[in-house]
């Protein structure tokens, strides 16, 4: 049997943490793109589109991420497509992230006074022009802090990719535990690494919030 | 020549009948003040004229042409009708100059240089030539409202609608804004204003329209109407505001 030194454990965990970071990044970017599209759909006055977006949000906010992970992994396979744990994890996390971001951003857009839309319309601007020149620049300032804050949830959410066999930080921890039989030590290290990933995010969210509040 | 004409305009909010058949005719260069209690439909009337609110029956013509829902959809209407709001509605993330330049640039496709010339000219006109690079939040309410006027003028509208534009201002700032309106009126701009400034309505306005319960209750020459009201409702209203 191979002996694992503390150094070995940390080295392996940090290696796996790179996958956690990559998964978080891709899911966050994917979620942002999908959420942008959904936000645009929601702002149109088409009530059918708005309903569809609402259903989407309810669906992915109202079910555990773990189930979404399972469904993406096994569901896509059932349809006859080969899907890797990595792709399934990206898919599930993108859906999950976008459902929350749309809702966060809606709140930000709703804080802008209705008069901004009306004044823009009275100046003859089109819907897209109003979005681009008036609404988005202002909503972005408000949205940036809660969005960065939510990224912490995405990082922690990646832990669930371990259940479909994707080797990221949590899965690596489980495997190292199976080899070393030192659960407390291993999982404490895992937790510390998560904390080191998430703390800078929540801290910067707080700083951003202060910064944008003062200058308004 | 009639510039804005409303014939039998009816507007409902659900079951609530806000406008009950409004007839109104405004000639080019005329200054018309709409007065009345809150809830009498004054602001709604104004918002129907520029397409911010839909109406259910009747019609509005602008410059002799019927305003269609397509005009509103493609925002053709907005090019002829400017609007100033009680709450200014300046764009807080843009400087004063950018606030004025934006619509001429992206809606009228003017070049930056052209738009800048227009913006400077309009700011000069409202007495704020030195505020081009300021942000709106650095200005007083009266100054912000004058920027809003400059912004609307930059689109060279045929008629300017003013929705209680001095109501949110400190009393000492009202005068500056009214002075700008007075100057516009003297230059021949057509103005339709919902206002509580009776002195302004009397001295600068040509005509006063008194609205009551969703109808044009009484209208006529401003000096005559305000000094010799015919209906009991207008008499009561004037008694209450003066």
UniProtKB/TrEMBL annotation, chain A:
<dbReference type="GO" id="GO:0006865">
    <property type="term" value="P:amino acid transport"/>
</dbReference>
<protein>
    <submittedName>
        <fullName>Amino acid ABC transporter membrane protein 2 (PAAT family)</fullName>
    </submittedName>
</protein>
<feature type="transmembrane region" description="Helical">
    <location>
        <begin position="20"/>
        <end position="41"/>
    </location>
</feature>
<dbReference type="InterPro" id="IPR043429">
    <property type="entry name" value="ArtM/GltK/GlnP/TcyL/YhdX-like"/>
</dbReference>
<dbReference type="InterPro" id="IPR010065">
    <property type="entry name" value="AA_ABC_transptr_permease_3TM"/>
</dbReference>
<keyword id="KW-1003">Cell membrane</keyword>
<comment type="similarity">
    <text>Belongs to the binding-protein-dependent transport system permease family. HisMQ subfamily.</text>
</comment>
<feature type="transmembrane region" description="Helical">
    <location>
        <begin position="53"/>
        <end position="79"/>
    </location>
</feature>
<keyword id="KW-0472">Membrane</keyword>
<feature type="transmembrane region" description="Helical">
    <location>
        <begin position="186"/>
        <end position="208"/>
    </location>
</feature>
<feature type="transmembrane region" description="Helical">
    <location>
        <begin position="142"/>
        <end position="166"/>
    </location>
</feature>
<dbReference type="InterPro" id="IPR035906">
    <property type="entry name" value="MetI-like_sf"/>
</dbReference>
<feature type="transmembrane region" description="Helical">
    <location>
        <begin position="85"/>
        <end position="105"/>
    </location>
</feature>
<keyword id="KW-0812">Transmembrane</keyword>
<keyword id="KW-1133">Transmembrane helix</keyword>
<dbReference type="GO" id="GO:0043190">
    <property type="term" value="C:ATP-binding cassette (ABC) transporter complex"/>
</dbReference>
<dbReference type="InterPro" id="IPR000515">
    <property type="entry name" value="MetI-like"/>
</dbReference>
<dbReference type="GO" id="GO:0022857">
    <property type="term" value="F:transmembrane transporter activity"/>
</dbReference>
<keyword id="KW-0029">Amino-acid transport</keyword>
<dbReference type="Pfam" id="PF00528">
    <property type="entry name" value="BPD_transp_1"/>
</dbReference>
<keyword id="KW-0813">Transport</keyword>
<feature type="domain" description="ABC transmembrane type-1">
    <location>
        <begin position="17"/>
        <end position="205"/>
    </location>
</feature>
UniProtKB/TrEMBL annotation, chain B:
<comment type="similarity">
    <text>Belongs to the ABC transporter superfamily.</text>
</comment>
<feature type="domain" description="ABC transporter">
    <location>
        <begin position="4"/>
        <end position="238"/>
    </location>
</feature>
<keyword id="KW-0067">ATP-binding</keyword>
<dbReference type="GO" id="GO:0016887">
    <property type="term" value="F:ATP hydrolysis activity"/>
</dbReference>
<keyword id="KW-0029">Amino-acid transport</keyword>
<dbReference type="InterPro" id="IPR017871">
    <property type="entry name" value="ABC_transporter-like_CS"/>
</dbReference>
<dbReference type="InterPro" id="IPR027417">
    <property type="entry name" value="P-loop_NTPase"/>
</dbReference>
<keyword id="KW-0547">Nucleotide-binding</keyword>
<protein>
    <submittedName>
        <fullName>Amino acid ABC transporter ATP-binding protein (PAAT family)</fullName>
    </submittedName>
</protein>
<keyword id="KW-0472">Membrane</keyword>
<dbReference type="GO" id="GO:0005524">
    <property type="term" value="F:ATP binding"/>
</dbReference>
<dbReference type="InterPro" id="IPR030679">
    <property type="entry name" value="ABC_ATPase_HisP-typ"/>
</dbReference>
<keyword id="KW-1003">Cell membrane</keyword>
<dbReference type="GO" id="GO:0015424">
    <property type="term" value="F:ABC-type amino acid transporter activity"/>
</dbReference>
<dbReference type="InterPro" id="IPR003439">
    <property type="entry name" value="ABC_transporter-like_ATP-bd"/>
</dbReference>
<dbReference type="Pfam" id="PF00005">
    <property type="entry name" value="ABC_tran"/>
</dbReference>
<dbReference type="GO" id="GO:0005886">
    <property type="term" value="C:plasma membrane"/>
</dbReference>
<dbReference type="InterPro" id="IPR050086">
    <property type="entry name" value="MetN_ABC_transporter-like"/>
</dbReference>
<dbReference type="InterPro" id="IPR003593">
    <property type="entry name" value="AAA+_ATPase"/>
</dbReference>
<keyword id="KW-0813">Transport</keyword>
């Amino acid at each position: 049997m191979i002996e694992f030194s503390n150094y070995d454990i940390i080295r392996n965990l940090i290696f796996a943490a790179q996958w956690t970071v990559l998964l978080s990044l891709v899911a966050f970017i994917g979620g942002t793109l999908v959420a942008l599209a959904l936000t645009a759909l929601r702002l149109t006055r088409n009530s059918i589109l708005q309903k569809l977006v609402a259903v989407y949000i309810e669906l992915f906010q109202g079910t555990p991420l773990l189930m979404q992970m399972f469904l993406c992994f096994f569901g896509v396979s059932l349809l006859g497509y080969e899907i890797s744990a990595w792709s399934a994890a990206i898919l599930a996390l993108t859906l999950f992230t976008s459902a929350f971001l749309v809702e966060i951003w809606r709140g930000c857009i709703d804080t802008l006074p209705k008069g901004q839309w009306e004044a823009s319309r009275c100046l003859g601007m089109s819907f897209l022009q109003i979005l681009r020149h008036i609404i988005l620049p202002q909503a972005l300032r408000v949205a940036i802090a809660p969005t960065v804050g939510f990224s912490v949830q995405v990082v922690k959410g990646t832990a669930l990719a371990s259940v479909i066999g994707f080797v990221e930080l949590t899965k690596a921890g489980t495997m190292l535990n199976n080899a070393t039989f030192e659960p407390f030590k291993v999982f404490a290290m895992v937790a510390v690494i998560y904390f080191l990933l998430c703390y800078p995010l929540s801290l910067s969210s707080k700083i951003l919030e202060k910064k944008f509040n003062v200058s308004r | 020549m009639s510039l804005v004409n409303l014939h039998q305009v009816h507007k409902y909010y659900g079951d609530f009948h806000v406008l009950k058949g409004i007839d109104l005719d405004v000639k080019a260069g005329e200054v018309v003040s709409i007065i009345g209690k809150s809830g009498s439909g004054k602001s709604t009337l104004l918002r129907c004229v520029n397409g911010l609110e839909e109406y259910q029956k009747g019609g509005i013509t602008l410059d002799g042409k019927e305003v269609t829902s397509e005009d509103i959809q493609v925002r053709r209407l907005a090019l002829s009708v400017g609007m100033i709001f009680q709450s200014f509605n300046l764009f807080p993330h843009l400087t004063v100059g950018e606030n004025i330049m934006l619509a001429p640039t992206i809606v009228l496709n003017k070049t930056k240089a052209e738009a800048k010339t227009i913006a400077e000219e309009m700011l000069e006109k409202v007495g704020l030539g030195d505020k081009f690079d300021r942000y709106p939040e650095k200005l007083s309410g009266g100054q912000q409202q004058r920027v809003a006027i400059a912004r609307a003028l930059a689109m060279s509208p045929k008629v300017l609608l003013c929705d209680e534009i001095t109501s949110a201002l400190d009393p000492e700032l009202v005068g500056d804004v009214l002075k700008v309106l007075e100057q516009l009126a003297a230059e021949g701009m057509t103005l339709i204003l919902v206002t509580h400034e009776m002195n302004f309505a009397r001295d600068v306005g040509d005509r006063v329209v008194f609205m009551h319960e969703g109808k044009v209750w009484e209208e006529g020459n401003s000096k005559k109407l305000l000094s010799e009201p015919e209906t009991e409702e207008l008499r009561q209203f004037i008694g209450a505001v003066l």
